[in-house]
Amino acid sequence: MYQVQQLIGGVWGAGGDAGRLTVLDPVDGTPVSEAPVATEADVGAAVKAARSAAPRWARTSPAERAAALRRAADAIEAVADQLAEVQTAELGRPLALARGGVEAGVSTLRQYAELGPVRGGRSLAGDAGAIDLMVPQPRGIVAVITPWNDPVAVSCGLLGAALVTGNTVVYKPSERTPAAGFLLARLLDEHLPSGVLSLLTGDARVGAALAGQEVDVVAHVGSTATGRSIAAACARSGAKALLENGGSDPLIVDGDVDPRWAAEQAAMGAFANSGQLCVSVERIYVLRSVANRFLGALVQSAKAMRVGPGRDPRSELGPLVDRRHRDHVHGQVQAAVADGASVLLGGTVPDGPGAFYPPTVLGECTDQMLVMREETFGPVAPVMVVESFDEALSRASNSPYGLAATVLTASMSNAQRAWRELPVGTVKINAVFGGAPGGAAEPRGGSGQGFGYGPELLDELTATKAVHIGAPGGEGGRW
């Protein structure tokens, strides 16, 4: 079993007197990791240590900070298998997906190591005898609060961007994946000055206590409810809230595409990582002209997916993160059926241990159903048949969330309309996943605010200062 320690002010094993939490393997319910629960005093001590280390780290040259990230990236890459295994143990993720998350995290650290030193401000054209500059500076202390569904990749993005721009960090990983956060923090800390990074573990109360501290930025990836609480805390403290929260991402299937190919895309989008991705396909609108063939192919694609333990290389879908989350997913499915949805595949809780849930396809769905309005975050594909692309676009746009959307179409005019009109941060045409490296978007509505990825994240984590340097006045008037 993984024994997790906290890091406060350069000291591993500090604090944690509020108790211990145990994470159970979602495959069989056996304990896999144990972590301390931070006290209010621990949270305050971590922030104080970060504040103390901040001036020195801010003065460290960007090249030196980037070199530290590169060394950390190399160290993480060297133990990628171990970091994948701990994810599989804590959240049931298939090993290949877990390793892909580690590789993505390593790539992100290296990307920010390259971008950090070449970022600069700009000079302004002012008086001939003066110098005018706009200079980015570290914001100070960044509280990084990360989710369980892709713990290494997401954490590397926020931690790497915050550190390379000269901020100190207090890092709180999800209580469902504390060992993944612990191992990642150890590897980073080995290459950073004491106090630059602190690690706190515990439940939502610890995250709330950290968000309420006198920090400069709270960067959070997770649920909309938690994001709103963090935004309220930041409004009180004056900290900047950087949020990527829940989504109810739509998929539109136009009437001019191959329905079998569209079904393969839909299955990938709805069922990858057992539907536990921020940008999972959560609701599907298919035009009536291809609906029957699409639904038949979607059921066949879902049937072909192998569900099993993440350690089994044949498994395509692992369990959900725990039984509590499975109850949430199944509850939404049951509510949809009670409201008139038809179960075309799945929709039942399997016998036996663990938190497994089958790929589920629902037909005859309506706008009023929770599965079409809220984030399910499970392997569920609810489908509504529509009469036109206009109707699909209108229904897809009618959501309090604004994270991402996908449109499958052979019509360039429909593709152009879709990316212009859909009120989301990311629009993908003819691919549920993919995109050029370095892409970044701002979520909208209940899905958050601010850039969470790409070069723009470096701008989010710095504050720009305007500087005017004029010659001294009086007699002489020169330097």
TrEMBL record:
Keyword set, alphabetical order: Oxidoreductase
Claim: Oxidoreductase is one of the keywords in the record: yes
Any single Pfam family the record assigns to this protein: Aldedh
Known EC number: 1.2.1.16, 1.2.1.20, 1.2.1.79
Limits of the Aldehyde dehydrogenase domain: 19-467
GO molecular function: glutarate-semialdehyde dehydrogenase (NADP+) activity; succinate-semialdehyde dehydrogenase (NADP+) activity
Protein name: Succinate-semialdehyde dehydrogenase/glutarate-semialdehyde dehydrogenase
